[in-house]
What we know:
Layout: E1 19-21, E2 27-29, E3 35-41, H1 49-55, H2 66-78, E4 82-91, E5 96-104, E6 107-116, H3 123-130, H4 140-156, E7 163-170, E8 176-184, E9 190-191, E10 195-199, H5 204-211, E11 214-215, E12 220-221, H6 226-242, E13 249-258, E14 263-271, E15 275-281, H7 287-293, H8 296-299, H9 304-320, E16 327-332, E17 339-347, E18 353-360, H10 367-371, H11 390-405, E19 413-419, E20 428-436, E21 442-449, H12 473-488, E22 496-504, E23 509-517, E24 523-530, H13 537-541, H14 554-565, E25 570-577, E26 586-595, E27 599-612, E28 625-641, E29 646-655, E30 658-668, E31 676-687, E32 694-707, E33 712-726, H15 736-739, E34 742-754, E35 765-775, E36 785-798, E37 802-815, E38 879-892, E39 896-908, E40 922-925, E41 930-933, E42 939-948, E43 955-961, E44 967-970, H16 977-981, E45 997-1000, E46 1004-1010
Parallel strand pairs: 3-5, 6-8, 9-14, 10-14, 15-17, 18-20, 21-23, 24-26
Antiparallel strand pairs: 1-2, 4-5, 7-8, 11-12, 13-14, 16-17, 19-20, 22-23, 25-26, 27-28, 28-29, 29-30, 30-31, 31-32, 32-33, 33-34, 34-35, 35-36, 36-37, 37-38, 38-39, 39-42, 40-41, 42-43, 43-46, 44-45
Amino acid sequence: MTGVWSRSRVLLLAVLIWFSFSAKGQTQDFTGKIVTSVEYQPAVQPIDPHDLTRMQLVQVGQPLNPRQVAATLDRLFSTGLYDDLQVDAEPSSNGVTIRFLTKPRRFIGHVGAQGDIKDPPSRAVIISNSQLYLGTPFDEEALQTAQATIRQELRRNGLYEAKVNVATIEDPDTHQMTIRFLVDAGKRARYDVPAITGDTKLSNGAIIRATGWRIPLINRWRRITQALTDKGTEGIQKRYAKANRLTASIDLKSLDYNPDTNRAKPMLDIDAGPKITIKAVEAKVSKGKLRKYIPVYQENSVDNDLLAEGAHNLRDYFQAKGYPDVDVIPRAEPPKKDEQIINYYIALGPRRRLVNIDIVGNDYFLLDTLQERMFLHTNTFVNRYGRYSETFRKRDEEAIADLYQANGFRDVKVTSTVETNYKGKENDLSVRFVINAGKQWVVSKLQIEGAARLDLTPIKPDLASAEGQPYTEINISSDRSRIIEYYLSHGFPSATFRYTAVPNPEDNTVSLTYQIREGPQQFVRQVIISGLYRTQPSLVQNRIDIREGEPISTVKINEIARGLSDLGMFASVNTAIRNSEGNTHYKDVLYDFDEAARYTFNIGFGLFIGQFGGTTTNLSNAGGAKGPSPIVVFDVNRQNFLGRGQTLSLQTRYSTLEQRESLNYIIPRFLGSFNRTVTFSILYSATQDVQTFSSRRAEASVQTSQQFTRASTLLARFAYRRVSTGSVNIPALLIPTLQQPVRIGIFSASYIQDHRDNPADAHHGFWNTVDAGVAGDFFGSQRSFYRVLARNATYTPIGRNIVLARQTQVGGIIPFNKAAGLTSFEAIPLPERFFGGGSVSMRGFGNNQAGPRDIGTTTEEPDPSVTPKPTGFPIGGNGLFFNNVELRFPLLWPNVTGVLFHDMGNIYRNFGDISLRYHQGSFPQNNGYGVNYDFNYAVQAAGFGIRYKTPLGPVRVDLAYTPNPPRYLGFSQNESIYDLLKCSQADIGVKPSCTASPQRLSHFQFFFSIGQAF
């Protein structure tokens, strides 16, 4: 007979006699025969050779023992890598050949969904509902269950006629199963008129309107989705709550689908319940506060526990408002005539202020360390009664005690008392906390047992419970996490941690012993990648720095997965250890990828309202024009271009102030560095945000960025651009030299050092940036200059909630190799100069209104042959200095803060003209006006702002006052630039339309925007 071992027989007693068919068809006993060879079919096994050698007890050259054969089969099955095992034996020349016939187990690899998928449900939800997990054994029955679950999810979203098929592909080398669900969603059904039963107390029409299942006005039923169905039942609940029926129950029993009409009828059973009227008696409480603090409104039920919780919440609310003696008693009246009244009787007592907090017995911590953990606060200008409640006082006792216990004071006791009539003032309170710390327990000795195969020397300095340190449960928990994490990172997934503590009351010390059970160490057999269809495998393989034979580190595996997710190429990156429960030491590490969509589209609309530039022929707007500017933004991104992880993007922005298009090709991980990116860009923009002129720029550039640390980045770029000006509003500039296009070739580098805790709203840290560049004829540039712009910002916390923020910016543009006849100022084209002023640079100016202004000539000394026609329009400068200081503090509620700020600085004619003097100077001019103004001085602005926190960043409003705004020669009448061009020298002082007069920028500026100023 043939000796056959199937899976169901592995756990039977070992066979004592071994038979096999001989060549002549007779049975033969091979027990005791010498094993001449051991073979496996197929030859390539799913188990690592190291594990196979360990589990195979049948050895070549040894007598055949049936017990060893049975034990080998038992061990192989325990690996979890086989669906079936059989064994065969046949005689050989000098003994017997043993052959193991195996059927490897299949495991789940990539799971995907494709076809006609209509969101909802999304592809990700469909995959999640399959409940097929990476690295787990593959089961045909699980596929059928997954199909049924997906169909149910589709039906819940109105896709009643959806079809779900499944296709599987097995990798013969890895035995990974790729599973694809093929979805044909069909047409989504619509809601039908609900069937409503029960004691509703509302009309069917009111209930249907509350669901939102029908579009108003046109009365068309919406398409079914699970979210809309849930929202509909919630809408009914809210409608009853609005009618004070807080205990109403709404039961959606079914959605009955009619395939002939492709509609589903909701079956609703409703019990409206009585009206619940909740009143505050003897104290005024708004309805909104009652809804917030009484959980009956949220739980839609009435019971004693909820009423007591509401009384507790109201008590805390009034105590925080300065009524420490408040008493709140709830009382629910029996229902009468379809109404139940719940009264909260509130006895406020006198209103008091918390003016003093004493902490006695604190000899270990700084007072600020305790105060920053406390809920109680004494009165301030903003909160005139302070913050006090009995609940807060108990919490503060616990917080102080927890802090002491975390530092070894195991027997600490914290009590508190309240003193009324503090210092003879009837309505003043003082709270006194008394700390009885007791003895501090410290660790006298720390022993670590059981660390036999892993050296813990590298992490011993990190352990919190070292000798001489305070003995606390928190420190032990921290040590446990550190030790277990270290074992997990070295391939010990089943390592366990226990400890024993032996106290010595005589000297308040504890002897600690950490006991570690290491368990088996696991190693990497191979890394298997699945789910890549468009992405080149080498892109992922180069980033997975895991080698065969190294210990399995779950920490490293997850870090690599996070890094791959950060590439932006994948919708998800899943990892698993295949057959993690199997009895093998060498295991496969799996990475499965769900590639993101190749194209992403972004479209946005906005409106900018404020004082800004914008080309205009109206000379009276030289100081800035107020008005709206609609904005449209449209971006297209081609992700993972050519499967290399590169991005091709088109970005556009259109408004009345700017038209901008750019095409960018982004290459991450350039030359093998994961922190280096190269970007090639082509840009065209036309801007009118400076009233003096319009600017057009056509540019091609290449930039590389190298990130050294999380906070430090270096950028180097070369740009070649053609800049030109149009719609120039200054007569003196209407000459070919300054109107003609200019080619600029510039090489620049930027260094960014960002140590802010939150770039959108920093509370501590610093931020440094330096940008330096050089343009010259050696780069093909028609202008030669150096350009430097540096910024330093710091954020210093003061106490718990106040931040002192400051920023300084310094910049300079210095020309060289100037063309004959051009001054240093004129050598720099208008679009290349510094322009500033506004909400993010200097709030004493409108946007781009800082710096020099047109004085009527193109040179510092007027040309007698040129008729001076000063307009006062800003013309930018080659020097920049701004300094901003803000004091940010809490104002109202947690989300509203205030800011006091002081800004100073200006845009200067040249870098050497930077000055901090306060007053604007003037100098005589032979220009028909007798005087002109010097703009090289520091304008000052002080003001107040409000910030409201939102998920997008703080929304801010700033009001600034400038005591020394610039004066300039300009026009206050609505004159046209074209009329000014017709004026002669003789018309100056005679015709008002030809005669400029002293003007001054406004003392007040107002800004509304999102994000902090810096």
